[in-house]
Amino acid sequence: MSLESPATPVIQLEHVSLQFSGRTVLEDVSLEIAKGEFIAILGASGGGKSTLLRLIAGLLSGSGKLEVRAATAMVFQDYRLLPWRTVKQNVQLPAELGGAGMPADEALTLVGMKAFTNLYPHQLSGGMRARIAIARALAQDAPILLMDEPFAALDALVRERFNLELKKIHEKTGKTILLVTHSIREAVYLADRVAVIKDGRIELILETKGQGRITAFTEPLEAQLRNVLGVADSTHIEEPAPNLRFPWELIGVLSMVATLLLAWLIFVPESTLIFPTLGTVWQTILEKQEILLLGALETLRITGLGLLWSLVLGVGAGYTFGKVRVLERLFSPFVVALQAVPVIIIAPILVVLLGFGTPSRVIVATLISLFPILTATMIGVREVDKLYREVFQTMRSGFWGMLSKLEFPGALPVMLGGLRNTASLALIGAIVAEFTFNTDTAGQRASGLGALAQSARYAGNIELLFAAVIILIVLGITMYVLISALERWVLRYRRK
Q1: What is the pLDDT of residues 12-22, one digit of tens each?
Q2: What span, in angstroms and rounded, lies between the C-alpha atoms of 357 and 482?
């Protein structure tokens, strides 16, 4: 069934049909919508209402004629706010992607959320999230606003308050609005026309402009109840107070370290060829602090270079594999095989090609540490929810916008977990490389804690060997703590 609108249609559907897996979702749908109209779409669940909106938004394609003569913005039923962005940053997203649009502050003012700009989505109630989703759509400054049951999760009082606000927004902006709803009262109250969809077909279109209640608060019995209940509104979810409990875990770790040192002091009273005393190791650290510091700096240099190349290669390959599964299936056996090959087999080849210097050692550190960040990036990119991708599609985001605003931040939690393993393995790789390439091209002993430990072992200097190992342990723990702190800072938006 079709109904001609008095004005030139901004949206026109003629005999549009759509099938999923052989099942007809929409069948022979014809509808014309004029500029500035408010259309409500009613129907049972699974009847094709949301599918019709997604067709108009360009997220789906079907048969028949569909013309949308203006840009669209969509408010999804589940809101789909990016959890790592604040309220204001979520509303700014359209401008960041497209370079134009309504200022975020103006859009937030329209929906009454200007006071909550620095909160994260997890700090908002359902009603506040609905407002932010509407503000983000308004910020796109698109003439057509598509709304897929944005108030479905709200209680009746908040929903009616939102009906009033939406009516005011429509009057103020003059946008063409399509609202999918299950509420007959809501549809009649808000819309100029109501289209009823049944089994994928438009069964009826009714003129409803001016036919609903004057406001949502006028009927006598309802007005009396609302006077008692008060005007409902969405609420702010207060964050719990910071947990200031005593750090028993730190005390436990320090106690265990102290116990180990005490046991070393008690059970190793004299140095042997196998085990030195704690006192002699400490004395060696004090006496050899300069050579140990230089060795630690060299090891950190190789570790840093190996980590850097692991990130460049791992993130690049992991992103490519995550996006193109064919390439992953093609190259992953070679990556796994390279990871499994012992360094002692690769070492002679590297010596012939590059000698004993820095390049050979960096390659070893890179090969050993590459796999975790590659895998984490691939998994992280694939775990970015398809629903968020649709949000970016409706904003007509390009490749760079999708990568920088969605895929990288969305994959970051998994990538940071991989980075912890990669950093530890890069340190191990640097030590292995110093053991393997312990002589430079001039025949001089290579610096680094690994080379220093190996030289001490050959010379029978067991105290220096233990001193080098202790410094390595400290370096490893420090790197782990720093990356964990970085992870906590980057993911501070997450609720504990």
Answers
A1: 999 999 888 77
A2: 29
